[in-house]
Design a protein that fits this description.
By secondary structure, the protein is mainly beta. The protein has a single domain, classed as Deoxyuridine triphosphatase (dUTPase) (Deoxyuridine 5'-Triphosphate Nucleotidohydrolase, Chain A, Distorted Sandwich). Helix content is 7%, strand content 31%. It contains two helices and ten strands; from the N terminus they run H-E-E-E-E-E-E-H-E-E-E-E. The radius of gyration is 19 Å and the shape is globular.
């Protein structure tokens, strides 16, 4: 079952759900609106160099990458961008990692981050496959934003909504206590890039094959 506004308030009062900052006006019938923090991350593979003022719109400044793709075994290089007061234009074909202004903790429910219908109607998606949280998640949420059309977004705008689902029983080990967890306990409202590379032994990539033909 999905918690209603009444239940969300009850579990906030008991401390089982924490949302900071909390604004009662952001509480929907069965969800809570979260807002876009001012920092974005993009992968260098998509933006070798970028005019962060956007005075030249979407122009990339020439630079040849040694490895023009992401590799699951290698920690990805990122560029940090700041959304200015006049907003920031997102473009199709690029993944923008964003964060929520809100820091949340969920101790007895599964939180889901979903987009707002008004933004969906503008062609904005806020997650690729990772909308589901875990019991015990503590931190700021990272959104994986893509757009169908160029779209200007603004820091502080509503960007998504959290839903809370009941679980049949509490887990033996919740997310914050798992030795393999990678994304809990973030301490600032900034997006976190993929840590897939940590799933490989020692986080070390395989040696490069000099005979590989896809360079």
């Amino acid at each position: 079952m999905i918690l209603s506004d009444r239940d969300i308030l009850k579990f906030i009062e008991s401390g089982d759900i924490e949302i900071t900052p909390f604004d009662r006006d952001c509480l929907g019938t069965n969800s809570y609106d979260v807002h876009l923090a001012p920092t974005l991350l993009v992968y260098e593979v998509a933006f070798p160099a970028y005019d962060v003022t956007q005075r030249t719109a979407h122009t990339l400044i020439g630079k040849t990458l040694e490895e023009p793709y992401l590799d699951c075994k290698i920690e990805p290089k990122t560029l940090e961008l700041t959304i200015p007061e006049q907003g920031f234009i997102l473009y199709p074909g690029t993944l923008y990692l964003a964060a929520t202004v809100e820091h949340t903790s969920t101790y007895k429910h599964i939180p889901f981050l979903e987009g707002k219908s008004s933004l969906g109607r503008l062609g904005l998606s806020i997650h690729v496959t990772a909308g589901k949280g875990e019991v015990g998640f503590v931190g700021f949420w990272t959104a994986e934003m893509t757009v169908i059309h160029p779209l200007r977004v603004y820091a502080g705008m509503p960007v998504g909504q959290l839903f809370y689902h009941e679980v049949s029983s509490l887990p033996l080990v919740d997310y914050r206590d798992k030795s393999t967890q990678k994304y809990s306990h973030s301490n600032s409202p900034k997006p976190i890039a993929s840590k897939m590379y940590k799933n490989f032994p020692d986080g070390v990539p395989l040696p490069k094959d000099p005979n590989r033909q896809d360079r």
